[in-house]
Amino acid sequence: MATFCAGRRAQWSLEGRTALVTGGTKGIGKAIVEELACLGAKVLTCSRTEDGVIACITEWRAKGLEVHGIAVDVTTAEGRQELFSAAEEHFDGALDILVNNVGRSIRKSSTFDFTPEEFETIINTNFSTVLSLTKLFHPLLKAAAAAEGARDKGGSSVVNISSIAGVTAVKTGAAYAASKAAINRLTINWGCEWAKDGIRVNAVAPGATNTPSTESVPRSTELMDRIPMGRWADPHEISGQVAFLCMKGASYITSQVICVDGGWASNGWM
């Protein structure tokens, strides 16, 4: 019985897996880094500011987590290449898990309020960056999936952090919604396209979540009424779903967009 149960428990571990999380020093990204590291993964993360990376690495190492970090801007081709080179060296040419968390929102109620530059910035950060970076890392993900015993661990996994704004109409602005809807479609297509390479691709679409970037958003009665569970999410409630999708327990799940939103996306317009 002990041997049988040990095999089952292995489905819920990330022990020895390698993971890259973009934008991992704040909010949901930071929670994802901590979740994966606590479950045994060796994590590399990045942020645009060196001070932010150093502060988080110091905090995580004090907690006994195996996390490394690099200061790069992944919205640029140069930054993505620098991150790739660092990850390739750090993980010996193979990557089990890629979490595309970097994103940006500019909240405006009307499409006509956006300048062309603002619209382009959001599309570039939330969509084009994910597209380019994931294509760049595909060889490392494929190499990990081809390694001996990789199938026993569920293969390689890409998790894109989307939003319920890409699933239903919410007041985050058309540019943000369009970028996240594009991510959802990309996720679905990649999951089908890359299954032959042993790479699963899914997206997690958070609803209202308590992070530093949402502190200024009013917790209105109107908003709370749209969330059946009646509250905002904690970042670790999002990171738990991300971790699950990277495990062997999720080895038959791909091309899915999973809303973690307290039921909001099923409850209509906010």
Can you describe this structure?
It is a single chain. The protein is α/β, with parallel strands linked by helices and 270 residues long. The chain has a single domain, classed as 3-Layer(aba) Sandwich (Rossmann fold), CATH 3.40.50. 43% of the residues lie in helices and 14% in strands. Strands 3-2-1-4-5-6-7 form a 7-stranded parallel β-sheet, sandwiched between helices. It is globular and about 55 Å long. The N and C termini lie far apart (51 Å).
Short description:
Pfam families: adh_short_C2 (PF13561). With 270 residues, the chain is an alpha/beta fold. The chain has helices at 2-9, 27-38, 50-62, 77-90, 116-146, 174-193, 221-226, 235-246; strands at residues 18-22, 42-47, 67-71, 97-100, 156-161, 199-206, 257-260.
The tally of beta strands, per DSSP, is 7
Cα Rg:
18 Å
Q: Structural class of the secondary structure composition?
A: alpha/beta
How would you characterize the largest beta sheet?
7 strands, parallel
For the record, the count of structural domains works out to 1
CATH class: Alpha Beta
CATH architecture: 3-Layer(aba) Sandwich
Total helical segments: 8
Strand content: 5-15%
Give the helix level as a range of percent.
40-55%
List the secondary-structure elements in sequence, H or E: HEHEHEHEHEHEHHE
Low-confidence parts = none
CATH topology name? Rossmann fold
C-alpha termini separation: 51 Å
Mean pLDDT: 91
Shape: globular
Strand order of the largest sheet: 3-2-1-4-5-6-7
CATH superfamily: NAD(P)-binding Rossmann-like Domain
Keywords: Oxidoreductase
Pfam families: adh_short_C2
InterPro entries: KR_dom, NAD(P)-bd_dom_sf, Sc_DH/Rdtase_CS, SDR_fam, TR
GO molecular function, one term: oxidoreductase activity
